[in-house]
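Propose amino acids for all 199 sites.
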């Protein structure tokens, strides 16, 4: 699926369009981005035709959602989540989260990640969320820690980056952590009578 509108304080998560392909393709091939990420489908460089095909396939995939991240009226990044589709599961995996390297250190990643987390926990009502990060991606690890993610597993020497093999960290945050850390300030909708018991 392609994501709908999610508004942060500084960023807007919106439906990605064909007009976004050039930007996505540019930073997917940027060595600053490639050196920091784990290798996933939406991080791999490709031709424009392949990106169009990926976008079409994504629009038909009911097990995942892709957003373009916009800031100041311009494309600034993209993010993607996958649903755990097992019966009774209510877990979401953040499989892709990238900010245009020309916009790094502007606070856009923090705002977009908080907006995405609000969607995960307050709109979808997932019980938990997880992601994986290369151990040398210190900016992403700091951001995940601020949000409330904790490392639960480590894969040793999984990824090659910056001229060496690096570990992969598996991180997880649960609904209780979200409510405790962000529930009052960042709740999308007020809690209704009886919902507290369910949460």
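Proposal:
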């Amino acid at each position: 699926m392609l994501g709908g509108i999610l508004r942060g304080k500084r960023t807007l998560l919106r439906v990605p369009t064909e007009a976004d392909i050039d930007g996505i393709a540019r930073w997917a091939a940027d060595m600053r981005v490639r050196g920091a990420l784990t290798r996933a489908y939406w991080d791999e460089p490709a031709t424009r035709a392949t990106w169009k095909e990926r976008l079409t396939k994504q629009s038909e995939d009911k097990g995942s959602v892709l957003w373009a991240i916009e800031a100041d009226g311009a494309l600034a990044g993209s993010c993607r989540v996958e649903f755990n589709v097992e019966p009774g599961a209510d877990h979401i995996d953040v499989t892709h989260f990238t900010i245009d390297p020309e916009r790094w250190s502007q606070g856009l990643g923090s705002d977009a990640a908080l907006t995405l987390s609000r969607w995960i926990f307050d709109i979808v009502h997932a019980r938990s969320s997880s992601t994986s990060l290369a151990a040398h991606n210190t900016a992403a690890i700091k951001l995940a820690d601020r949000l409330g993610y904790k490392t639960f597993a480590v894969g040793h020497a999984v990824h090659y980056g910056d001229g060496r093999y690096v570990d992969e960290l598996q991180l997880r945050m649960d609904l209780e952590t979200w409510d405790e850390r962000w529930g009052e300030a960042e709740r999308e909708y007020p809690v209704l009578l009886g919902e507290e018991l369910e949460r």
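The chain has a mean pLDDT of 88. The beta strands are 6-7, 12-14, 64-71, 74-83, 91-99, 128-134, 150-161, 164-174.
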